[in-house]
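Forum: Protein Structure Q&A
Topic: Joint prediction for protein chains with partners

I've read a bunch of threads here and the consensus seems to be that you should model interacting components together rather than docking separate models afterwards. I'd like to see that in practice. Below is the full input, 416 residues plus whatever partners are listed. Could one of the regulars post the assembled result?
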Amino acid sequence: MIFEVDQKRLDGEIETLAAFSDAEAPAVTRVVFSKQDAKARAWLKERCREAGLAIREDAVGNTFARWAGTRAELPAVGTGSHVDAIPHAGKYDGVVGVLGGFEAIRTLQRSGFQPERSIELVIFTSEEPTRFGIGCLGSRLMSGTLSPSEAAGLRDAEGDTLEAVRRGAGFSGSLDEVRLPGDYYSAWVELHIEQGPILEREGVSLGLVTSIAAPASFRITIEGEGGHAGGRLMPGRRDALCAAAEIILAVERFALGTGAIDTVATVGICQVHPGAVNSIPSRVQLAVDLRDTDAARRDTVLREIEVACGEVGERRGVKIDWQMINADAPAQSSPEILAALTAACEAEGIGFKRMVSRAYHDSSFMAQIAPIAMLFIPCRGGVSHRPDEYSSPEEISRGVRVLARTLASLSAGGKS
Ligand code: HGY
Ligand code: MN
Ligand code: MN
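Posted by a regular:
Agreed with the consensus. Here's the joint model:
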C-alpha cells in the first residue's frame, strides 16, 4: 500500500493555523482559551468535519475527531498533540502532531484503507504551562494525574480560575467526565518535532522515542526589604533580587553538577516587585523548570536547590517560600508501539533511530492509560519555542507517511 501525503495542502494548513496568533509573524503566540485559540479550534473542527470525522469536546476543551472503524466497539487508536503556543514561539511545536495526524488520517482515507478500530485525532487543551502554570492540563485530567478539583482552582496571572475561564470559553460540564477509562485507546502515537539537534546533526530522518524525560517545575518567592535606592545605604540591605540572583546561579550550578547531560534546569520567569529602577526589590518570584531522564537524579538536584535557598535566606535575612507545581515520573514507550513504528519506517524505507525526548508532551500522561510511543522529525538547528523554529515539508511528510502506516497497522482489530 502506497501512502501519498498531500504535502502542499498540509503546508498551507500549517501557515493558516500560524496566522491565529497574538504575535507578529513569524512568531506565534496562542495561549489557551484566548480568542486566537478559539479561532484555531473552530478552524480545525471545520476541517475535521469536512473529512467526515465525528467531533466531540470534553469539559476542558480537549477535542476528539474520530474516524469510525468497522469494529467501532473496540478501543480506538489515538494520535494528536496540541495547538496552544507559548509567547513568541514557532509554528510547528504541537501543530505537526495535530495537522500531521489529521493528514495521516486523510492519507489513509484517500488510499481506500478502512480501519477496523476507529482512529481518533486529539487536540489537547493547554499542553503549555503559559496560562495556568502547569503543562499538559488536558492530558493530566484525561489520565487522572490531576484531580478535577485541583484543576478547577488553578488561576492565571489575572487571578481567574480555570473553572471560570473554561466556562467563559464555552466548555461546560463536569471536569469529572474528562478522565478516560484505561481501555479507551488500544494504542497512542504522537508525531512531534524533536525540539533538539540530534536528528539533524546525525542526518537521521526520524526519531522513535523510547522514553520522555521527567519534568518538574516549582515557584520560589523571596521576600526582602524594599526601600529608597539612594537613601538606603548598602550595609544591612535585604535585597530580594540579589538573593534571587544567587539562587538562579545555584540552579544552574547544581544542574551542571550532576555531570549528566540529561539534567537540565531553567529559571524562565523572574518577577521583581516593585520593579522601579530607584527602589530596592522587596519581593521576587522565580519559576523554575527542572528535568532529567532519571527522576532520582532530578530529585537530588531539587533537594540541593532547596538547601541552597535555606542557606541564602539565612545569610541575607530574606524569607524564601517554595511551591512545587509538578514533579512527574519519566514516561516509557511501549515495545509494541515502537515495533509498529519500526516496521512502518522499514516499509517506507526511511532511516530512524531510537532516542529519548527531553521535552515533555501529552504522551507523557497518555502513557498512564494506553501503550504509547512518539515519532520525532528533525527541526532546524534543534531550535524550538522560538519564531525561527522550522521543519521542512519533506521532513513533515516523511513523519506523516510513517504515522499513517503505523496507525493503519495498529487499527487492525486483533484482540479486543
Ligand atoms: O516544555 C516542554 O517540554 C513542552 O514543549 N511544553
Ligand atoms: Mn512546547
Ligand atoms: Mn509540544
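The first strand starts at residue 28 and ends at 30.
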